[in-house]
Amino acid sequence: MKEDKHALLSSSVEASPEELAASILPDDQEIHHPSGGLQIELGLASSLSVADKDDIWKIFANAMQEMYETSSFCWNPTKKKREMFHKLGRFILVRSKKSTKIVAFTSFRFEEEEEYGVVYCYELHVSPAFHRCGLGRKLTQMLFDICKRRGLDKVMLTVFKGTICRNYPAPRHLSFYGSFKANETAILFYQSIGFTLDPSSPGYGASLPVDDGDDDWEDEGRGYVDEECDYMILSRSVALATH
Ligand SMILES: CC(C)(COP(=O)(O)OP(=O)(O)OC[C@H]1O[C@@H](n2cnc3c(N)ncnc32)[C@H](O)[C@@H]1OP(=O)(O)O)[C@@H](O)C(=O)NCCC(=O)NCCS
């Protein structure tokens, strides 16, 4: 990684939550919702209260436990909590002013990925009662804003795509790879806000296998998608951050 990029990344890793909050438009720090006002907070994983960690874990587990159990990642709460509340982890929380409960959050870290300085989104979750109100889009936009203001390159994340089964072609509405046990809602969501397959994703550059009569070795030579791998890495460059 070039020195200037490295310096930008290091200063981001060291930035205080207050400095990062300055990257987010003031208008974004209050959200109106029919259930009452919602407020945005930025913080470090290390400064979350026990009650907030509990809310975060419940929202995550409700949405993801089953998906993890049927994935190559497996369901391991101890390991997952260690990752989620890692000392380098940062959170943007959406909190109900009325109940003071967290209703949505994203967690992220500043990382170097193949010469790029990135905001790696580790988690993005919206409580079911608040789905389709634009909170997911708003939190992702904040990650873009932070990424852009810090001079970094892109926002990245990992999503379950399932594994390809040749007997079950891709649902027509998914332009990503055909999949089994995919997180379809998340894929549709990320597609709608402009994420595309990152070059570091397993199977990048591949297309759905088509039996064109050629020998298999040739298909493999073209780098067809890794059918064994049930996740993919998506990204969006800050150059495309406004939507
Ligand atoms: C994925 C998730 C974060 C989306 O959050 P959200 O706040 O409901 O999404 P938004 O309201 O911002 O939706 C933005 C756009 O995404 C698309 N979208 C969102 N949910 C969708 C769904 N269920 N089906 C189809 N498209 C969807 C739509 O285009 C939507 O725009 P529209 O409502 O104007 O049509 C939310 O469904 C969630 O928390 N899911 C469970 C956890 C999860 O899977 N997280 C991702 C892990 S990688």
UniProtKB/TrEMBL annotation:
Origin: domain of life: Eukaryota
Protein name per the record: Uncharacterized protein
Species assigned in the record: Thelephora ganbajun
